[in-house]
Design a protein that fits this description.
The protein is of the alpha/beta class and 257 residues long. It contains 8 helices and 11 strands.
Length: 257
């Protein structure tokens, strides 16, 4: 691990990856269970929700870690060359090599899918899950299923397509490899063997990921302590102050159990 830069009193450090490259992260020491934030598709650890979570951790003396997947933010790699499975491995590397003790995983959008995969692979390390606008299986349900046959054929021929992004001036680059590799990690097709408490938050006005996906997720999670909260009028970002408060309330409930 090496220092990369400093922002405030939490420095950015780097975690070397096998085969080269690095994952950039910020870790705040504190009490357990720690908080591990898992960001969304093309987002990074400087976002509103991640920053609010770290402020909460600082105020309560709790350990907190946030990071950028490869191809995102301050981490190495080219976004369009990476896949969901590689981002799961990034999350696993941070969980195993950066954090200590039990963790509450807070997953936003794609990060909720990553969090579920981590909970299935390291159940002994996960004290709870909080998901925000969860997008499990998004490569299949929100990318491939929404393409028309012309777009699918172009993806097969060119290996990729581009589409406008609502969150960036740069288009989203969607690759055939991303979709095909994502099929190895789908979770909505059957029971999800998680025993830890789970809190799902989703906005009813989410134009990117329908709230019904979180309802399907709730139905498949095996934990007896799972709850879905629908936020009226909430969009996909869930970054308005009342929505941030709802996230922190869910985290605080699980952290003080």
């Amino acid at each position: 691990m090496s220092r990369l830069a400093t922002s405030g009193d939490v420095p950015i450090a780097t975690l070397p990856c096998e085969g080269g490259g690095h994952i950039a992260y910020r870790r705040r020491d504190g009490t357990e269970p720690g908080l591990l934030f898992l960001g969304g598709f093309r987002s990074d650890m400087s976002g509103t929700k991640a920053s609010a979570l770290e402020d909460f951790a600082a105020a309560t003396g709790r350990a907190c870690t946030r990071f950028d997947y490869r191809g995102h933010g301050a981490s190495s790699g080219r976004f369009e060359e990476l896949t969901f499975g590689e981002w799961v491995e990034d999350g696993l590397g941070v969980l195993d090599r950066v954090t200590e003790g039990p963790q509450i995983l807070i997953g936003s959008s794609m990060g909720a899918w990553v969090a579920l995969r981590l909970a299935l692979r390291r159940p002994e390390r996960v004290a709870g899950l909080v998901t925000l606008a969860a997008a499990p299986d998004f490569t299949e349900e929100l990318i491939w299923a929404r393409l028309d046959e012309r777009q699918r054929q172009r993806m097969r021929t060119d290996g990729r397509i581009e589409r406008p992004s609502a969150y960036s001036a740069q288009p989203d680059i969607l690759t055939l490899r991303l979709v095909e590799e994502g099929r190895r990690h789908l979770v909505l097709g059957g029971p999800i063997a998680t025993a830890c408490p789970v809190r799902l938050l989703h906005g009813t006005a989410d134009a990117d990921v329908p709230w019904q996906i979180s309802l399907r997720l709730l139905e498949r999670i095996e934990s007896a302590d799972a709850r879905l909260t629908l936020i009226k009028g909430g969009d996909h970002r869930l970054s308005e102050p009342p929505q941030i408060d709802a996230m922190l309330a869910a985290v605080a409930e699980l952290a003080t159990r």
